[in-house]
């Protein structure tokens, strides 16, 4: 299929991921009227064949003992000739994992090798089994990948949720508070305002003499100009300022609390960036899982549809009935697993969004 070339563009050495979310399913079925271009007698291709190509993605560790994860792609092209019982597979992947699993499943010498290509129905069943191997690979590691993201997030947010919140104390201005006193007894005073104002100096002198326990004596009050040095007596109605009133001592203000180094690290921009990176990974995982669900669903529908066509060999459908049912049930289980991991990632993304306000 020429369309398979599109799947190859996402492979190769890249400093940054290019076209990482390309995923599609393509098929060509020629059973009733074989195309002349597909008839190759030298290779025993009759032209009556089923062609499909698709790609799936999964999470893998670079090494078994590594704690990091990466998203790996696998592109698959499959052709099955229903007349001459021939099958062709082209798989493109960054390592030999799928190749080793397919070889192990098709090797008749190994105990695990149980696939046979002796008849058309067994060859068709073997093709279904290889598809199952690839679909199982696309779902098997997502549980541990989500666990890794959850552990990273919990390790960074656990201390932040338990961090003490210190409220700075309000400053106290003075030991004694100033209170407004009501004006009382003002109705008892009589006379004009000028008369009352004229008695103020006398009242102050009497009050001052009573406070000191002796009658007051007239004191000559003078004012000295600081510039000219000349002195002159003050009028009797001007009151000299006495010693400044004592200022109430204010309570010592408490210094604002300072964060320790560990607390500053709990509330840091670097940690916010790491948490945002984890949330980006959850969004990426949700999209990839949904793409896998779409591809596997199309693969399941494709084989269910072509086996019910009039032009498809009915003896193959009858002899492979158990294999077809097993194929559909296994794919249903894979789809359920992927849907569960989607729910986990969506829940983790919402939890990260709520916790980012605390970091």
What can you see in these coordinates?
With 359 residues, this protein is α+β, with helices and mostly antiparallel strands. Helices cover 45% and strands 12% of the residues. Strands 1-2-3-4 form a 4-stranded antiparallel sheet, covered by helices on one side. Helix 2 (97-106) packs antiparallel against helix 3 (120-140), helix 4 (142-162) runs antiparallel to helix 8 and helix 8 (269-306) packs antiparallel against helix 10 (321-355). The two termini are 52 Å apart.
Brief account:
By secondary structure, this protein is an alpha+beta fold.
- Number of helices in the DSSP assignment: 10
Task: Profile the largest sheet.
Answer: 4 strands, antiparallel
Q: Could you tell me the strand content as a percent range?
A: 5-15%
**Uncertain regions: pLDDT < 50 for 5+ in a row?**
none
Gross geometry:
rod-shaped
What is the average of the pLDDT values?
77
| Helix content bin | 40-55%
Listing every helix as H and every strand as E from the N terminus to the C terminus, the arrangement reads HEEEEHHHHHEEHHHH
Overall strand count: 6
Strand order of the largest sheet: 1-2-3-4
Assign the structural class, choosing from mainly alpha, mainly beta, alpha/beta, alpha+beta, or little secondary structure: alpha+beta
How far apart are the termini? 52 Å
The radius of gyration computed from the alpha-carbon positions, rounded to a whole number of angstroms, is 45 Å
